[in-house]
Amino acid sequence: MTATLLKEASPPPAAPADHERKRRARRRARVIALAFVFPALLLLGALVVYPVLFSVGRSFFDASGDRFVGGDNYTEMFRDPATLTAVRNTAIWVVVAPTLLTGLGLVLAVLVEKIRWATAFKLLLFMPMAVSFLAAGIIFRLAYDEDPEKGVLNAAAVSVHDAFKDASSYPNARARDGQGLTKAADGSYGTTAAASPGDTVGLGLVGVRAEDLPGDARPAYPASGRKASADELRGVVYLDFTRGGGGEQGKVDRTESGLPGMKAEAVRDGKAVASATTAADGSFRFKGLDPGSYTVRLPASNFAAPYEGISWLGPALVTPAIIGAYLWIWTGFAMVLIGAGLAALPRDALEAARMDGANEWQIFRRITVPLLAPVLTVVFVTLVINVMKVFDLVYIIAPGPVQEDATVLATQMWLVSFGGGNNQGLGSALGVLLLLLVIPAMVFNVRRFRGSQR
To answer: Which of 28, 71, 98, 280 satisfies CB 3.0 to 4.6 Å to 218 for a cystine?
Structure first.
């Protein structure tokens, strides 16, 4: 009886036609999915897989591509000083740029939460991401220009320097040979003949254009005839040049101008015992001198070249300068990503810490940063992958003479292959090296994404 009831309650077996219909539906779904995925797979194979495999194969051949050389390209790669410089610079980029960007992004994301116009501020910082690396490189190439008339950074540096230290008005001035002035090793000029209190000395210089004279400069002739008292030593510093020719070298003529604002020193036994600054007519005087012999010295500061700023694109600073341009572009990216993670933090933990008496620094260090660790890791690794491939900024910003000092693996690969080296075997080996360096970071990032999805 029971067996009869169970038999009646069980569903009838599915017909073979139902199984066939489901099988066809699944097959159709797979075909449709493959049809949608196929274009992407085709592009992936053509643009990624094939170039990678071709580069790996090409790295085992010589520059012409006809002769198999095995691992010679990889051996040569690590013997080439330029490649070693590229590896060193790439290491600097990997350590410095992602660390600074992640730190700046974290600080800015936390601070932006506390201001009223947070959206506008984020938009302002994110705007450089809309600028191409080519345009950004041109902008910073101009900003880093050594000429203060062109480079905004050097213009600011020169302005700050000149605000605290006066620039020399006569950087090109010099004395004529055999006219009573000799140049010392430190760049100063001193009289060859000794002078005593009561004397008047004339110090003639050349090399100053008439149009470069200060506006308050006056003729030196009246000052040259003034008599000195018994305890003072007088003198005049003048431009020993007469417009239109004529005049006598070593003597002050009526039309010759004084050189105002020049520092002069009275020297005795190798020590400066008095100093003075020339007036508008170039005159100066030392008062209260003891009897004896003195020489008059014009210190080197009178002839110092004007401060022209910092050599941002010189061999020493070119890599930090380019990293600075990279920070300007990517800081907004790091801030927005970290800000999104910050917005998802549990506010009850932060409020509980405040109620327990924790200050903002303690909350930031012990709660905010640990909770944001997964986001910070993803941002850091993403930036590491990005800086390993940096090319545009280095190639555009670094001038030709320092290109080798700023080169990274990506630029070195291009220079070796197409930028004059014409050795695509060695260039392919550099490309393989770059790929091997990027893969671990990519794998780590993919695992992080999968872990967060779980």
So the answer is: 280
